[in-house]
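User: Let's play a game. I give you a shape written as tokens, and you guess the letters that built it. Ready? Here's round one.
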């Protein structure tokens, strides 16, 4: 989620103060048009310059389900919409739920400049947007999913807010396992690999723990941590 190039001609499109701090949408010029980026509490989250690792988050989870019929997926974090758009492009997903706690980000997709990425996916009848905190959702919801694809931080070792750290703790991983069907897949995006997080996944009872690197435009690979809830 680090910027892929040095910003040029940058301007602030919108800035909001909310219950989790400040969230900002910025726009800058890129070689193929305008690039939008999301900043939370001064921390760069993601931009629209690439998106291949956010798409791979969904593809890797789907592949790990090994042909399970009509699987459901929960996407943690709407972001700039790449993961949602990728999910909607796969007809096999039967249900696509997206948890996003920032009302501003939802509005940037519903009626703002990020509509160009997510418009078709939001109109897909399989898609539902849940305006809530992901940590609260995995702990308190009753729904289960075949895949959880989580991308709300720069990784388990670099969280946007302190409370997000619970998601990667033993308590949080146990809650994630409860939201998964037997044999379901947990996929977590990160800006860098974390051996400690891999160990946490194993200690939480997940199997098939592995980390996949994805080359991105800026040169430093992003990663997806993958783990399976035992059947």
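Assistant: Ready! My guess for every position:
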């Amino acid at each position: 989620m680090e910027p892929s190039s040095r910003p040029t001609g940058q301007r602030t499109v919108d800035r909001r103060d909310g219950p989790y701090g400040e969230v900002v949408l910025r726009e800058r010029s890129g070689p193929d048009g305008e690039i939008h980026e999301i900043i939370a509490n001064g921390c760069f989250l993601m931009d629209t310059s690439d998106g291949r690792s956010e798409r791979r988050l969904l593809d890797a989870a789907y592949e790990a389900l090994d042909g399970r019929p009509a699987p459901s997926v929960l996407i943690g974090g709407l972001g700039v919409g790449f993961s949602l758009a990728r999910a909607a492009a796969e007809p096999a997903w039967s249900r696509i739920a997206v948890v996003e706690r920032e009302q501003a980000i939802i509005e940037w997709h519903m009626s703002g400049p990020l509509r160009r990425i997510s418009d078709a996916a939001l109109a897909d009848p399989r898609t539902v947007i849940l305006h809530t905190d992901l940590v609260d959702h995995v702990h308190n919801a009753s729904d289960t999913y075949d895949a959880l694809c989580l991308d709300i931080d720069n990784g388990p070792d670099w969280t946007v807010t302190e409370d997000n750290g619970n998601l990667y703790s033993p308590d949080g991983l146990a809650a994630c396992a409860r939201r998964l069907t037997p044999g379901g897949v947990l996929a977590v995006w990160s800006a860098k690999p974390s051996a400690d997080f891999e160990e946490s996944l194993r200690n939480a009872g997940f199997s098939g723990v592995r980390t996949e690197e994805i080359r991105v435009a800026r040169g430093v690979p992003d990663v997806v941590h993958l783990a399976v809830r035992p059947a």
